């Protein structure tokens, strides 16, 4: 794990936004993180391919510092196909085929705000505006969906959600599916807006995802609280 050496971690080793470092420092010294580091090291030593690359484990946090968080979109674990995962929930690298769930997210975005679907699945434009695209589990083995569940990441991302819940600014939590809703069940709804629906997966999207208008509802809440809305329109060129 990036920033964890010889079974321990120091905050000087961890390449992470200073704001997140301050909020999450206690987590890096806990036993579960040491055990998680050992597990990931054993995976690599066994020749297994782990996605995303180590530099991208904390990419969502790197791109969205705590003082900039305006929206949280909670996913489950990274895509497990070659070249897909890069540390942001629901997002894939430029040039990679858009996954089915993201196709449906784009369809709902078009129905909600009239924004035509992007030709790519690279969501860093959202992250840089304050949309924390956080997976519950931050790594996965190639070709093995959910292979790293129950290894410790969930405890770490629980701490991230608790930290966001305690931030001074009101935040929108977009929770698609029962897994995300259970994980963030403790969020303070008297301060934050929680938007819930079924998951955008093709297996469930037609049973309560389409028509829920999460993007306009998020922006309406942010504006009502005196914050700028999110520009949900993705650039045509993902490198921009």
Give the CATH H-level superfamily.
Answer: Uracil-DNA glycosylase-like domain
Output the number of helix runs.
8
The CATH architecture assignment turns out to be 3-Layer(aba) Sandwich
What is the percentage of strand-forming residues? 5-15%
Largest sheet report: 4 strands, parallel
Structural class: alpha/beta
Subcellular location: Cytoplasm
GO molecular function: uracil DNA N-glycosylase activity
InterPro entries: UDG_fam1, Ura-DNA_Glyclase_AS, Uracil-DNA_glycosylase-like, Uracil-DNA_glycosylase-like_sf
Organism: Asticcacaulis benevestitus DSM 16100 = ATCC BAA-896
What does this protein structure show overall?
Pfam families: UDG. Its main location: cytoplasm. The two termini are 29 Å apart. The N terminus is likely disordered. This protein has 8 helices and 8 strands; from the N terminus they run E-E-H-H-E-H-E-H-H-E-E-H-E-H-E-H. It has 240 residues and is an alpha/beta fold. Helix 7 links the parallel strand 7 and strand 8.
Task: Please describe the topology of this protein.
Elements: E1 4-5, E2 8-9, H1 18-24, H2 31-45, E3 50-51, H3 59-63, E4 71-75, H4 100-113, H5 124-127, E5 131-135, E6 140-141, H6 153-165, E7 172-176, H7 178-183, E8 193-197, H8 214-224
Parallel strand pairs: 4-5, 4-7, 7-8
Antiparallel strand pairs: 1-2, 3-6
Structure described in brief:
The protein has 240 residues and is α/β, with parallel strands linked by helices. It has 8 helices and 8 strands.
């Amino acid at each position: 794990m990036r920033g964890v050496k010889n079974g321990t971690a120091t905050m000087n080793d961890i390449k992470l936004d200073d704001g997140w470092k301050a909020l999450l420092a206690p987590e890096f010294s806990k036993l579960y993180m040491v055990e998680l580091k050992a597990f990931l090291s054993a995976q690599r030593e066994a020749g297994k391919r782990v996605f995303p690359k180590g530099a991208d484990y904390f990419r969502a946090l790197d791109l969205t510092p705590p003082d900039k968080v305006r929206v949280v979109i909670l996913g489950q674990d990274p895509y497990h196909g070659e070249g897909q995962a890069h540390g942001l929930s629901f997002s894939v690298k430029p040039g990679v085929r858009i996954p089915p769930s993201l196709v449906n997210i784009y369809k709902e975005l078009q129905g909600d705000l009239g924004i035509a679907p992007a030709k790519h699945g690279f969501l860093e434009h959202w992250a840089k505006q304050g949309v924390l695209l956080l997976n519950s589990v931050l790594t996965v083995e190639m070709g093995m969906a959910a292979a790293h569940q129950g290894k410790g990441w969930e405890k770490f991302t629980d701490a991230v959600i608790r930290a966001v819940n305690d931030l001074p600014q009101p935040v929108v939590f977009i929770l698609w599916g029962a897994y995300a809703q259970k994980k963030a069940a403790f969020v303070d709804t008297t301060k934050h807006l929680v938007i819930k629906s079924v998951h955008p997966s093709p297996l469930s999207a037609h049973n309560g995802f389409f028509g829920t208008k999460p993007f306009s509802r998020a922006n309406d809440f942010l504006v009502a609280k005196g914050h700028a809305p999110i520009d949900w329109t993705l650039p045509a060129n993902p490198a921009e």
